[in-house]
Design a protein that fits this description.
The chain is of the alpha/beta class and 233 residues long. The protein has a single domain, classed as Class I glutamine amidotransferase (GATase) domain (Rossmann fold, 3-Layer(aba) Sandwich). The protein contains eight helices and eleven strands. A nine-stranded mixed sheet has the order 2-1-3-4-11-10-9-6-7, sandwiched between helices. Helix 3 links the parallel strand 3 (54-57) and strand 4. The longest helix is centred in the N-terminal third of the chain and has 15 residues, at 69-83. The chain is globular and about 45 Å long.
Amino acid sequence: MKIGLLVCDTVRPEYQAEFGDYPAMFQRFFSKYELISYKVYKGEFPENVTDCQAYVSTGSSHSVYEDLAWIRRVKAFIREIYDANLFFIGFCFGHQLMAEALGGKVAKATDVGWCVGVHEFRVHRITKWMRPAKTKVNFLMMCQDQVVEMPKNAVRLGGNKMCPNAIIQVGERMMSVQAHPEFSKAYDRTLMEGRVDRMGEETVAKGIASLVLPIDTEVYQSWVDEFLGNVED
């Protein structure tokens, strides 16, 4: 199966030696699949939406509501994915891209601030692809923006008080998560330590302290495998 990776940013050069760039992180997460990277933040897109059977979008330091040509174009491309009835999975920025592309809204979560470290999410609705079935999951977070209005045809699958719309699904073939299951705890910690001036010492301290909690990376990998189970090779 060919999965198109819509790369929306790059890891800071000083971090790449230890953690790799986003394509490497996602290839580790999607180890069973062939990933084809498209640096959409540099204007690289597939020639045709049907070049891949499924698409995944990475996170980004940008905001989806920024008026940038490549962001407008990737939103349009996500609508093409939807119209072509192909599979799409969004991570963080990709989660927000899917929401805005299909009629939702994203904004800074000024009432709660940054969500970082390990967060527990309650699963409101267990779908057929959530195998193993879990009522609660722990994922790594690194975000300030959130989906504040979902697309009209979206279903909220999971969230918590700080991030209500954390896991959503649109139709049978598009789903997304506000979290970063592709991150390691070490990378999440490195980002927090490098952003104390932006996040504040208290937020970073709490985020780093939360890293002692387990994370459900393998659970989400299983969910992704089940979700993509109907893709034809």
